[in-house]
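hey team, just a heads up i'm posting the complex here instead of the shared drive bc the drive is being weird again. everything in one block, sequence lines first with there labels, then the predicted structure for the whole assembly after. its four chains so it's a bit long, scroll down
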Amino acid sequence: MRYEERFETVVKSAASVFAKRGYHRASIRDVAKAAGMSVAGLYYYCRSKDELLFSVCYHSFDILLQTLQRSLKSVSHPEEQLRVFILTHFEYFLTHVEAMKVVSHEAGVLTGEFDARVAEIKRKYYLRCQQIVQAIVGESDSESPRLRTTTLALFGMINWVYTWYRPGRDDDAKGLADCITELFLHGVKPRAETGG
Amino acid sequence: MRYEERFETVVKSAASVFAKRGYHRASIRDVAKAAGMSVAGLYYYCRSKDELLFSVCYHSFDILLQTLQRSLKSVSHPEEQLRVFILTHFEYFLTHVEAMKVVSHEAGVLTGEFDARVAEIKRKYYLRCQQIVQAIVGESDSESPRLRTTTLALFGMINWVYTWYRPGRDDDAKGLADCITELFLHGVKPRAETGG
DNA sequence: TACCCGTTCGAGCGTTCGCTCGAAAATAAA
DNA sequence: TTTATTTTCGAGCGAACGCTCGAACGGGTA
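-- predicted structure starts here --
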């Protein structure tokens, strides 16, 4: 299947170009050049620039979600689930930096159906995380504002990474995950040590 | 001083338009319209669109940094400093949502001198925060990777807010600050309670 | 050979972009 | 009033944008 291969090339090139230049700054000509084809040729594989952004976002998040489901399948203890969730997230982010930068950064650019479908899959991801947090804190109300804030704080920690992570300087996914998991569970100043 | 007033109008309009449409999507014509003047008239107050973005970012961060210094002046206990830092951050973010969204989201668009000056002031802000964290965790090495990761995790929590905060639905600055401070210090599952 | 059909492209359409010009209008100073 | 200075703008330039068209390419089949 020549088509499928070429399509993947196109989406990957788009992810790379969008990540480097930002969605609006990146032109369709840049993407075409990166994919090694003409502008007209590029449009054989997509209907619009927006659809290209959608493809990048949707594909990435879809695979991330699937990877997460698979990783969590064999883990039942909530705190271990959290560690697995965070690790999976970092591993995926660090091996798909460009795509995930686009996903994180260009959210809100899409509209209509594209926006709805990406928002839907993001929500699934969020809810799966919230479930884990809920189990850990022992909250019975899934609508609790506190639960929401706490979960979104966790999301902040793990999503913000793309703005500062530098390979070589910073720790790998495992190291980061351990650090963040520990921080989220017990904080920087566990009470147990302050009383002694 | 007619000029100064008009200039502030221009910067505020730019912040608003950039926040709503995103920097690249927003056109200079949008900003001019929002400021109630013609495109040519707008250029009497700035040299380029980039300079406009710089003004928005630099002004905002400059005032935030000054506000922070003032707030921290009378606080010496590290944990209390942390609470004040987070609260100040949220209060400023929530009263300058548009500007801060631009600052957070359009970082990396600027280049050269503009980029350098914004990066410099951001670094000052980061280092002030790192000092506080360092005092809390009792770390002696300011270059510690762990300290870096921990501080940036905190930044993630407080900077990510602009992507999800909804006035009315979510708590106010004080409530958020308490929640995040507690989370950062002791985690969601303090050890003191798990030991029995 | 001829035909087909999935794939590719050069050329270019219409629009919007950031930005500038010279002149006019508003304001202040004489 | 006249003069000088600050502020405003309509008109439009050149470039880049997203996107499209009809034609051509090239490997497989008959």
